[in-house]
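ARCHIVE CARD
CATEGORY: sequence design from structure
SOURCE FIELD: tokenized fold
FIELD CONTENT:
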């Protein structure tokens, strides 16, 4: 396996684990000192903290679907374009398009993740109950 294939492989494993919600598998892809920078300026540091953060967030989403559209790698950086579709507790179904940038260390573990939100939209809204009054 070439260096670029190895770098891409760890990111593919991360994305597969995220889509399957396989938190132990996802944790194996992370470097101890991984830093995740989210789309709203939020930062999560450390492999356990990041894995637990994802578990907490994604496990609460109903009908979670992750679709990877594109992966490109140069040296130790991997760019991913993907979408996530899920249902919130309120019943709203949301679709988000994102770009992620991964940095991979010399031990083929993810050491950095930057998440960029391209677009987020409601794909079906919960109907408001009718008031039942008529004029």
């Amino acid at each position: 396996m070439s260096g670029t294939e190895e770098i891409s492989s760890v990111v593919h494993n991360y994305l597969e684990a995220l889509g399957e919600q396989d938190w132990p598998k996802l944790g194996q892809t992370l470097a101890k000192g991984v830093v995740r920078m989210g789309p709203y300026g939020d930062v999560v540091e450390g492999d356990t903290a990041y894995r637990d953060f994802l578990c907490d967030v994604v496990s609460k989403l109903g009908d979670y679907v992750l679709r990877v559209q594109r992966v490109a790698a140069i040296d130790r950086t991997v760019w991913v374009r993907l979408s996530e579709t899920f249902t919130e507790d309120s019943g709203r179904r949301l679709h988000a398009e994102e770009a992620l940038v991964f940095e991979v260390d010399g031990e083929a573990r993810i050491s950095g993740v930057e998440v960029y939100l391209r677009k987020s939209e409601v794909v079906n809204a919960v109907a408001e109950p009718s008031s039942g009054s008529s004029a």
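CARD ANNOTATION: The chain is about 25% helix and 45% strand. The domain at 3-124 is CATH 3.10.450.50 (Nuclear Transport Factor 2; Chain: A,).
SHELF: design records, drawer C
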